[in-house]
Design brief:
5-stranded mixed β-sheet; 38% helix
Length: 490
């Protein structure tokens, strides 16, 4: 029987540590995480470089951020503290701009409203990679039963150890290095923006304000309940925005998740542009319109269109495990111009090696406007043109939820079973290849035409994900049905 008084085991998943508020995500455990980061900073002899601390709009995020800051301050580590809820990538920007030793963000990204989370940023601004996280996790494991010292924020501020930041003006200047904001502002277009009540509310409207372009933004108010949906910019969570687009009067929809590090889009008819399409569109934009030929890093659950576009433009494509803690370091290692994960996270070599949904959405807008200048308009027509170049992509993902108490056992049973006894066919077609993920969290199966099925465990929630990308809508549905049967049957 598990000891209820034993310290919580904290392990970082594909993007930080996340848990249910008041169950495992407590002030004590947040302080333990902050102490792990402090030990990392002190171990590198980088106390003077300080740590950036930020937070999103979730329940009590600002209070959890203060708790984390007070632990860092007890170690005499200076902090740069967000003056309000900000998009996660703003902490990455501040870490890079200030040369900080690390960054901390209190956010659970797109998780259910009942959760919160703790993300760590590396000195490069990227998500902390496995090597850095090992050190942080070791520090956390060592402090479970210890009463951690704290230094009150007001006391530390009086001593000059606290600096407050609002990143908007600096971030706008940073954007202008690689993006012509004035050209976007001057466009004759009407854009609908859906920030999903999150930390990205108001950012795109403000960045595009003052020009000819018209921006209508919904759900800007803080709502820790997120309207009753997970703040992930996929269907059905964004159906309200899609309905508004279908009603006419808009040229494009731009979507963000709860902490604005993920991007999404929809065309003028309200048709959702899925995340694998967005990966292909952004790669096409960088190659076709910006003339870039540097490598691209994509997660194993991302699109086959990347390889086809790579062949067309002479771009090397690297595949990584799921999560920006793998994609970011691979971007830095290879000098990649772009990193992309299936869930809508995109980083850029000319910007940050970390996900930035706001920047990705603005690049999509720039792409569609450049295509309009070529006579390829509206957005739905441009998408047809794009698939003539990149090939078909019919993609869906189904999440199968489990009780937290049973999840680990079910996960092992399903994934080990599929790895040891892979199916011989899917949707009536023979399986031509099987790939066990290097992180042991999933198995991928291929058909002769390049269609694929992936079953993997979420790194942040108690669920198994079933993904497919196929060459037709009919085959997509048939493969997905086969995948669901494999998981539920096991």
């Amino acid at each position: 029987m598990t000891d209820p008084n034993a310290p919580t085991t904290i392990v970082f998943g594909t993007d930080g540590w996340r848990a249910r508020v008041a169950e495992d995500f407590t002030f004590h455990n947040v302080r333990r995480c902050a102490d792990g980061v402090a030990r990392y900073v002190l171990g590198r002899g980088e106390r003077a470089k300080g740590v950036v601390v930020a937070y999103d709009r979730r329940f009590a995020s600002e209070h959890f951020a203060t708790a984390a800051a007070e632990v860092l301050l007890a170690h005499d580590i200076p902090i740069v503290f967000a003056s309000r809820a900000v998009p996660t990538q703003m902490s990455s920007y501040e870490v890079v701009e200030r040369g900080a030793s690390a960054g901390i963000v209190i956010t659970a990204s797109h998780n259910p409203w009942t959760d919160n989370g703790f993300k760590v940023k590396s000195p490069s601004g990227a998500a902390a990679g496995p090597d850095m996280l090992k050190i942080v996790e070791a520090g956390i494991a060592a402090n479970g039963a210890v009463a951690l010292e704290r230094r009150p924020l007001a006391d530390a501020e009086a001593a000059g150890l606290v600096e407050w930041f609002d990143p908007f003006e600096g971030y706008e200047r940073y954007l202008r290095r690689t993006l012509d904001l004035d050209a976007l502002r001057a466009a004759d277009a009407h854009v609908l923006v859906e920030p999903m009540w999150g930390a990205g509310a108001g950012w795109i409207s403000r960045l595009l304000g003052g020009g000819r372009i018209r921006v209508t933004e919904i759900h800007q108010e803080r709502n820790p309940y997120f309207g009753g949906v997970n703040p992930e910019p996929i269907q059905p969570n964004v159906d309200e925005a899609l309905g508004m687009l279908a009603g006419g009067g808009y040229d494009l929809g731009l979507l963000l998740d709860g902490d604005a590090d993920r991007a999404g889009a929809a065309d003028e008819r309200g048709a959702f542009i899925h995340q694998l399409q967005v990966t292909g569109l952004l790669m096409y934009y960088l190659a076709e319109h910006r003339g870039l030929r540097d490598p691209v890093a994509i997660s194993v659950n991302n699109t086959s269109m990347a390889a086809r576009l790579g062949e067309r433009y002479g771009i090397e494509v690297f595949e990584t495990p799921v999560g920006f803690k793998f994609i970011g370091p691979k971007m830095i290692e290879t000098g990649a111009m772009m990193g992309a994960e299936e869930s809508g996270g995109f980083g850029f070599g000319m910007h940050l090696p970390e996900r930035d949904g706001i920047y990705a959405d603005l690049l999509l807008l720039d792409l569609f406007l450049r295509e309009r200048a070529r006579g390829v308009w509206p957005v739905s027509k441009m998408l047809q043109h794009f698939h003539e170049i990149a090939g078909p992509s019919f993609y869906r993902r189904v999440d199968i939820h489990f009780e937290r108490a049973a999840y680990d056992a079910v996960k092992r049973h399903v994934l080990v079973g599929l790895r040891d006894e892979p199916p011989g066919e899917l949707a009536g077609q023979p399986v031509t290849g099987t790939q066990a993920l290097s992180t042991n969290d999933g198995v991928k199966f291929f058909l002769a035409d390049g269609s694929w099925l992936l079953v993997r465990a979420s790194g942040t929630e108690p669920l198994l994900r079933v993904y497919t990308e196929a060459t037709s809508a009919e085959l997509q549905d048939a493969i997905l049905e086969s995948g669901e049967r494999l998981v539920r049957g096991a």
